[in-house]
Amino acid sequence: MHCARLTDEQERQIAAALETTPDLLPFLSELLADIWELGSWPAVIAEMLGARGLPSSTRVLDLGCGKGAIGIRLARDLGFGVLGVDLFEPFIREARERARREGVDDRCEFRVADARDLLVSNSRFDVVVWAALGGALGGFDRCIGQLRRIVRSNGYIVIDDGFLASEHAMERNGYDHYTSREETHQLLTRHGDELLQETLIPQSEVEACNRENNRRIQVRAKGLMERFPEHADRLAGYVESQVAECEVLESSIAAAVWLLQRGD
Ligand SMILES: C[S@@+](CC[C@H](N)C(=O)[O-])C[C@H]1O[C@@H](n2cnc3c(N)ncnc32)[C@H](O)[C@@H]1O
User: Fold this and answer.
1) Which is the most buried residue in 25, 161, 215, 244, by most CB within 10 A?
2) What's the pLDDT tens digit per position in 77-100?
């Protein structure tokens, strides 16, 4: 199986980031085969960074890059050089293949690696991207504290996530890092970095995207259920949990992308 080299804890990390459980991992690449952007907004990120007038020598690190949707767009639209890392090997294979098809494989490197290993490396990037990985590094202040270590001085940090749409805290597993918009701004800038831009994703866009993604998952799940009837309950459970997850998110979280510039 493709996950053989992963520890149990790493399998839990991948599953949690994709809002599922490790027992579904063998089916995940097929369930998500028709979805390329896994919960982030690559066009928004490309527009934000494009507005900064950065040179094509810009080096980007995309942590938990999934199928490379963000990195490939930055390489294609802005000519940046990208290193994308993800623990899930099937996604990395897809990212490499897509980069080849889009003619940017000379500017994109995709590696199977634990993002946490890169955070303790001595590398320095011009831009570090943390997109659709939620609270895996803790609250926003702790997350930025770790990301900024591998960003050059005056370099950029992109966070693609969200904040609480209402005053009520989220009592849901994996969502405890969410807080109000104002407090999120305070946490993001706690280490002295400047919040350069915030882009809010319209709720209607989030809903349309979720609906389409869930439809695609459903089609794939149906095909898998026919081939693996013994796993039908598990697969049906996955489809249901994705729909439920989207409903919770849509009613409680406002999606946002933030661009920060590292202070000293
Ligand atoms: C929701 S997806 C987002 C993927 C990508 N950023 C995108 O926007 O398309 C989360 C990804 O994080 C990866 N992941 C979770 N924990 C990780 C870790 N510790 N190191 C590397 N990748 C990780 C998962 O395998 C998954 O591909």
Assistant:
1) 161
2) 999 999 999 999 999 999 999 999
Pocket lining: 13 vs ligand 1, CB cutoff 6 Å = yes
Would you say the CB of residue 88 lies under 6 angstroms from ligand 1?
A: yes
- Residues in Cβ contact with 146 at an 8 Å cutoff, skipping those fewer than 6 apart: 119, 137
Residue ranges per structural domain of the chain: 8-17+40-201+253-261
Q: Is the CB of 39 under 6 A from ligand 1?
A: yes
116 in ligand 1 pocket by Cβ < 6 Å?
A: yes
- Burial class of 185 by CB neighbour count within 10 A (0 to 12, 13 to 18, 19+): middle
Q: What is the pLDDT of residue 169?
A: 64
Say what the pLDDT of residue 3 is.
44
Mean of per-residue pLDDT scores for the chain: 93
Which helix or strand (DSSP H or E) is residue 253 part of? Answer: strand 253-261
Question: Going by CA atoms, what residue is nearest to atom 4 of ligand 1?
Answer: 66
Specify the CATH superfamily of domain 8-17+40-201+253-261. Answer: Vaccinia Virus protein VP39 (3.40.50.150)
Say if ligand 1 is within 6 A of residue 64 CB: yes
